[in-house]
Write a structure and sequence with these properties.
The complex is a heterodimer of chains A (426) and B (273).
Chain A lengths: L6 H10 L12 E2 L2 E5 L5 H15 L2 H15 L5 E3 L1 H7 L3 E6 L9 H14 L4 E6 L3 H13 L3 E6 H6 L1 H9 L3 E5 L6 H14 L4 E3 L10 H9 L1 H14 L5 E6 L3 H7 L9 E9 L10 H4 L1 E5 L1 E6 L24 H9 L2 E7 H15 L5 H17 L4 E6 L7 H9 L6 H6 L1
Helix pairs in contact in A: 3-5, 4-15, 5-6, 5-10, 6-8, 10-12, 11-12, 15-16
Chain B lengths: L2 H12 L3 E7 L5 H14 L4 E4 L10 H12 L4 H12 L7 E5 L1 H7 L1 H11 L3 E4 L8 H10 L2 E2 L2 E2 L8 H5 L6 E4 L12 H14 L4 E4 L5 H10 L2 E4 L1 H10 L9 H17 L4
The chains are: A alpha/beta (426), B alpha/beta (273).
């Protein structure tokens, strides 16, 4: 029997009988996904991180400390904004934007960085490493390292270093060393390989601060827990604003941390549709997309079993997206589980659709979204009319788009509708 | 008795340690790597480790990463790697062959079918870098049914408390990863290596091989002075890479690699145990 045939029955027994929020199990599995597929050299360290995290989670003092930094340094809670002009433009449900773009450093990434750096300090680690694609996680990591005075090395694909120069400069200003990765395809997955190689060579003093809900257990669980502040706040805010839960909650999915952060709180609220938007790049039926769930198959990479873009021979394939942050051939294992159970719907949005939504949000709300976030916004064009007037949708506005203006300008110049003038200015 | 156990028993009788050279299948092309594989026993290989190319080899340094890239470009697949072993077995029924690699290509092939096909091709053992004991049940039953040894890695970070867990279900021999780091980068101090052996000896009767960072004939000789076998990988691939002309096999690629195998084998044979 192949690995793909096993999971369905098994997860019904272990999960549907209970709650969707109880995962992962003791082996770090969400259904048949997740786990700890790392070399023996790292295994003791992974177990140490897990033990330290469980101890921190059970320590009220840790939560008090984290809450203080989230409030006074990150700027939480983030507002839930009723996007009236955007709602009117789309002609359907009332849309709320969860403003993670207003966090310090401009994205949701800092939520998990803050939690993990406090954990690294508790563990007595004196050096931090991280991988980054678009540079948002790298900037957030460099930021918390500056805050606590810890040396920091960021691995970034050489291709991404070129296309995300402002973030490279930000990281360097913050005191981080940015190491361009030239191995493989020189993008995010290769940066993660290189960070893992660094970790193996510096196990004694180094903490690997992973940026998304992927990697070996306990990272998918831990990053989700730290990001769940998004959904917890959203739930309370929408109840206060509307007196009821939303009809749908929607977020973009690369590795999937902002989406898990929003969704986790709502997993057992059956009436709330949860929708994850993957990057369909140049189209789901081309070879240039990042839709691991819609077009991938289960496999093992970077320490966990999940859906991956891969060849028939099990070699990992390159992802493509206009947004560097979604440009990853895998996805967090909890998303793979929620995909197979059907609890979360996953859809694809192309580069062009994301660009159009980027402009619509900017001009109707005065909010420049990250290109990653624009993928979630783009699906509103379908979803808002479908849910209709009287309905309520919450979108995770996961990051701000200042970093993307040059990419957008380049694409608009090359002929997308509605933006020739902007293209010329830049 | 398995080919691996038979070979180690014979070497024990001879009073010497084993040499395990490594090659990456299909590097730089199928015919060249087959010629290297076929020539290794006569050059002094006691067991042979064959790397299964993977796009994302997380435990490997640049030298083996590049070998994998060359191999994939040359059309390497698991089926092709098994075909190389089958061809080797037609000429050599005694030298144990170990496949080393990462899990995902095996999952794509189908883990049960892979174990069956590998055993049929003449493979004796598997080293799966990203399959720690915590996940070993994924392959254990299929491997056992096919008669393949699952060779476990023990690292400097594996403490005495964890060791029995790591060795539970281990077969063939124990592969001691001599450094905390990736392949082909630095070498362990001999004193550290010597200190690492007794706890493993106490925990298992399996032979111990030392790998990662064993590069020179002298280092290989040192390794078999304290363990039962030495694995040399990156140093051989470095020689192969240096012999290439525009990325393709040169006229003396096979000869240069096998000469180096001979030199290391000679040094190992001089160590009496």
């Amino acid at each position: 029997m192949s690995g793909e045939e096993l999971p369905r029955e098994r997860l019904i027994v272990t999960h549907f009988a209970n709650s969707l929020r109880t995962g992962p199990d003791a082996r770090g599995r969400f259904g048949s996904f997740g786990g700890r597929f790392v070399a023996e050299t790292l295994m003791p360290l992974i177990l140490e991180v897990e033990a330290a995290y469980r101890a921190a989670r059970d320590d009220p003092g840790f939560q008090v400390e984290l809450d203080r930094y989230l409030r006074d340094y990150v700027g939480r809670p983030s507002p839930l904004w009723p996007a009236e002009r955007l709602s009117a433009a789309l002609g359907g449900a009332k849309i709320y934007l969860k403003r993670e773009d207003l966090n310090h450093t401009g994205a949701h990434k800092i939520n998990s960085c803050m939690g993990q750096i406090l954990l690294a300090r508790r563990m007595g680690k004196t050096r931090i490493i991280a991988e980054t694609g678009a540079g948002q996680h790298g900037v957030a990591t460099a930021t918390v390292c500056a805050l606590f005075g810890l040396p920091c090395t960021i691995y970034m694909g050489a291709v991404d270093v070129e296309r995300q120069k402002p973030n490279v400069f930000r990281m360097q200003l913050l005191g981080a060393e940015v190491r361009p990765v030239t191995s493989g395809a020189a993008t995010l997955k290769d940066a993660m390989n290189e960070a893992l190689r660094d970790w193996v060579a510096h196990v004694a003093d180094t903490y690997y601060l992973i940026g998304t809900v992927a990697g070996p257990h306990p990272y998918p669980m831990m990053v989700r827990d730290f990001q769940s502040v998004i959904g917890t706040e959203t739930r309370a805010q929408i109840l206060a604003a509307e007196g009821r839960l939303p009809d749908a909650a929607i977020a973009c999915v690369g590795g999937g941390s902002n989406a898990m952060g929003l969704f986790h709180t709502f997993l057992d609220d059956e009436a709330v549709r949860l929708i994850g938007v993957e990057a369909a790049g140049r189209g789901l039926d081309t070879n240039e997309h990042a839709a691991s769930l819609e077009r991938g198959r289960p496999g093992v990479l970077h320490g966990n079993r999940t859906y991956l873009l891969q060849s028939a021979d099990g070699q990992i394939e390159e992802a493509h997206s206009i947004s560097a942050g979604l440009d990853y051939p895998g996805i967090g294992p909890e998303h793979a589980f929620l995909f197979e159970t059907g609890r979360v719907e996953y859809v694809g949005v192309t580069d062009d659709e994301a660009l159009a939504a980027f402009q619509l949000c900017t001009r109707s709300e005065g909010i420049i979204p990250a290109l990653e976030t624009a993928h979630a916004l783009a699906y509103l064009t379908t979803l808002a009319p479908e849910i209709g007037p009287g309905g309520v949708i919450v979108v995770n506005l996961s990051g701000r788009g200042d970093k993307d203006i040059f990419t957008v300008a380049r694409h608009l110049k090359s002929g997308s509708p509605g933006g020739a003038d902007l293209g010329e200015i830049l | 008795m398995s080919r691996i156990a038979t070979r180690f028993a014979a070497l024990r009788k001879e009073g010497r340690g084993a040499f395990i050279p490594f090659l990456e299948a299909f590097d730089p092309d199928r015919a060249t790597s087959q010629a290297i594989l076929d020539g290794m026993p006569a050059a002094g290989a006691d067991l042979i480790e064959i790397g299964m190319p993977f796009s994302d080899p997380m435990a490997d340094g640049p030298i083996i990463q590049e070998a994998g890239q060359r191999a994939l470009k040359a059309g390497a697949t698991l089926a092709g790697t098994l075909a190389m072993v089958r061809a080797f077995r037609a000429r050599d029924g005694a030298t144990p062959v170990i496949l080393m690699g990462y899990l995902n290509p095996i999952l794509a092939y189908g883990e049960a079918r892979f174990c069956t096909d590998a055993a049929e091709a003449g493979v004796d053992g598997l080293i799966i870098v990203d399959l720690p004991p915590e996940e070993a049940d994924l392959l254990a039953a299929d491997a056992a049914r096919a008669g393949l040894a699952i060779i476990r890695l023990v690292a400097p970070t594996t403490d005495a408390k964890r060791l029995p867990h790591v060795l539970d279900g281990a077969g063939g021999f124990v592969y001691y990863v001599s450094i905390t780091g990736i392949t082909g980068t630095r070498s362990a101090a001999i004193a550290d290596l010597a200190a690492a052996m007794p706890p493993i000896r106490r925990a298992t009767d399996l032979p111990i091989a030392i790998g990662f960072g064993v590069k020179t004939p002298a280092q290989a000789a040192e390794a078999v002075g304290i363990a039962d076998a030495a694995v040399v990988a990156s140093a051989l691939i470095e020689t192969l890479a240096a012999s290439l002309e525009n990325g393709r096999a040169g006229p003396d690629t096979v000869a240069r690699v096998l000469d180096q195998v001979r030199a290391i084998a000679r040094a190992i044979r001089e160590v009496r145990r």
